[in-house]
Inverse folding.
């Protein structure tokens, strides 16, 4: 009887452990739902004001019995970079208290800031309200400041030459989390940011709705008012999303990460190629140029012995000839444990000459921030534990 009792007790303990494990999973799911609820105000959760367009702010404030013009005031404060609702000083204290009861400012926290001694490029590691981290890079060009922002925490695409791939995918960024990268970088620089490239961590068109809303937020005349023609959206080639974007009538620049002249090479580099062939991608890009009347940029990471031969150059020229496009040749970035090495400058110049000989405008990308791991995903990769993206703090402290 005692043996049976011990056996039953062990089974009960095992069941209790299973229940606790399931409870933990449920709590984890609940936390994810809570993050979404914070943005939608379902079940009484507070709304992140950073995510709202002026018309949505009007709806919120009218529901609180306020005049419509209050929405404009709040939106302008958000875009000035205030970090707390109490800093919105042209709102009454009573209104600020009421607003805090239903909403909040989901601001980013700067946990690392690296400044290049070579060219002044600045790389930020931002902490999100849920503890995850993303990257943002501020660059100086002759035409002014440009900022490269992330669109996701991690990435699903798994490109083999990209530092973001090794860390896996966690979640999409909200429109406000993308907006605050621009606001935070501009506030830190003390200058207006004139250009945005969505080429940081993540695949922007895999987060289509949030990216589209971000574009409307950042372009709004009552906000940062950055023109669409000064914004570039990158994609690895999600054909349905490119075609959808072509119908939006938003004159942004589309940048496609091509990186190969044929499907055989591209499949080795980019798993997404097994779903969307180069021909399908180019067909979608041609439709985009007709609808939006803007050229497409093709990014091409030049990798030694993989895609940098003169045959590769002639093959690429044959596919792109006659298109309204520009090719940006990129020296592939070194990543820890990476298998690829960059081509030498002479090889890239020869590759460029072939494309230009076919009438295709081509540049070799100017490298910025080489001394601060400024390429996509490199800093985040260096400080997170891949199995738990929230344990980056220990890694940061160990480097200080």
């Amino acid at each position: 009887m005692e043996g049976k009792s011990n056996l039953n007790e062990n089974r009960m303990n095992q069941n209790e452990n299973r229940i606790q494990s399931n409870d933990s999973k449920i709590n984890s799911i609940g936390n994810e739902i809570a993050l979404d609820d914070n943005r939608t105000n379902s079940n009484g959760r507070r709304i992140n004001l950073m995510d709202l367009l002026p018309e949505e702010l009007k709806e919120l404030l009218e529901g609180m019995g306020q005049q419509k013009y209050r929405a404009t005031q709040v939106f302008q404060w958000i875009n000035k970079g205030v970090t707390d609702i109490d800093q919105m000083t042209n709102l009454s204290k009573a209104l600020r208290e009421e607003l805090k009861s239903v909403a909040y400012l989901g601001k980013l926290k700067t946990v690392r800031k690296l400044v290049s001694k070579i060219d002044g490029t600045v790389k930020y590691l931002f902490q999100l309200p849920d503890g995850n981290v993303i990257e943002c890079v501020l660059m100086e060009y002759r035409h002014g400041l440009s900022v490269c922002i992330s669109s996701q925490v991690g990435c699903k695409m798994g490109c083999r030459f990209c530092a973001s791939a090794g860390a896996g995918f966690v979640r999409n960024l909200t429109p406000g989390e993308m907006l605050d990268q621009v606001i935070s970088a501009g506030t830190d620089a003390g200058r207006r940011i004139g250009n945005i490239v969505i080429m940081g961590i993540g695949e922007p068109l895999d987060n289509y709705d949030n990216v589209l809303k971000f574009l409307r937020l950042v372009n709004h005349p009552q906000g940062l008012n950055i023109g669409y023609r000064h914004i570039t959206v990158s994609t690895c080639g999600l054909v349905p999303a490119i075609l959808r974007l072509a119908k939006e009538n938003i004159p942004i620049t589309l940048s496609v990460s091509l990186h190969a002249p044929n499907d055989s090479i591209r499949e080795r580099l980019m798993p997404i190629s097994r779903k969307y062939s180069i021909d399908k991608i180019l067909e979608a890009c041609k439709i985009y140029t007709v609808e939006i009347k803007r050229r497409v940029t093709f990014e091409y990471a030049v990798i030694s012995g993989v895609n940098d031969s003169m045959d590769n150059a002639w093959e690429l020229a044959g596919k792109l000839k006659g298109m309204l496009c520009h090719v940006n040749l990129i020296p592939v970035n070194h990543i820890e444990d990476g298998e690829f090495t960059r081509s030498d400058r002479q090889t890239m110049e020869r590759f460029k000459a072939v494309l230009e000989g076919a009438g295709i405008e081509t540049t070799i990308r100017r490298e910025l921030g080489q001394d601060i791991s400024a390429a996509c995903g490199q800093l985040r990769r260096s400080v997170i534990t891949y199995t738990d993206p929230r344990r980056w703090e220990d890694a940061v402290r160990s480097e200080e």
